[in-house]
# Entry
Amino acid sequence: MDTKELLKKVKKIEIKTRRLSDHIFSGEYHTSFKGRGMTFSEVRQYQYGDDIRAIDWNVTARYNEAHVKVFEEERELTMMLMVDISGSESFGTKNQFKNEIVTEIAATLAFSATQNNDKIGLILFSDQIELYIPPKKGKSHVLRIIRELIEFNPKSHETDVAQALRFLSGTQKKKAIVFLISDFMSDEYEQPLKIASKKHDLTGIRVYDIREAKMPNLGMVPMTDAETGETRIINTGSKSVRMDYSKFYDEKVKYFKETFSKCGSGVVNTRVDESYVTKLLGYFKARS
# Structure
């Protein structure tokens, strides 16, 4: 993709997603994610009426006079966007490919965070960490994130959600708002998700296509696995083949929903031909 075409795509996504974040999401985002809570500010002498649970016993012993810890609300947030860019994201049968919807969702969330003056970081992953952009503020930073989402070419086409979660836990020491965007056609990520969810406010956004859920009866069809590159002739006319296909898909979706629920993380499911705006707004309002 040449520079002119890239800039045109970035501008198109910016106009659409910024309008959404300015007029729809910024208020809902701010209400849903109010801050990390209370953070330590200073130690001062005890005053009548102070909560005795706030007494700093080490300082009190040192000065032989009661001192208390003072906390204040920490309003600045950090948002981490974790985006699956494996081969299966380049799929779509209705209007748009999954990766195009993923880019729009990520851009909308990023601009919403910018309205709240929050930092935004990006992790692009396949079965390895393809790109890490540390959290930072500002419009130019968000535009860089959008550019990477549009033009980045991954080294691998396979998926490993667990690896991405381990990387998150290793790099983000402070609590962050995390949106993990993928089709979640993988499993065995419960343990790293459990660890990440204890520290971060984590939401899984599953973007999928209707044809992934059910195989149509089209007879003998050559099919290529987007992640392995392997091509096979599949008899879609076989009922057992279609049932096995649906069973595999259903197991992955069930694992995603049950695992995120068990770990206390949020879940959003959106099909490429549905309005992700409606889905995200509903999720934000349910959290408020």
Notes: The first strand starts at residue 37 and ends at 45.
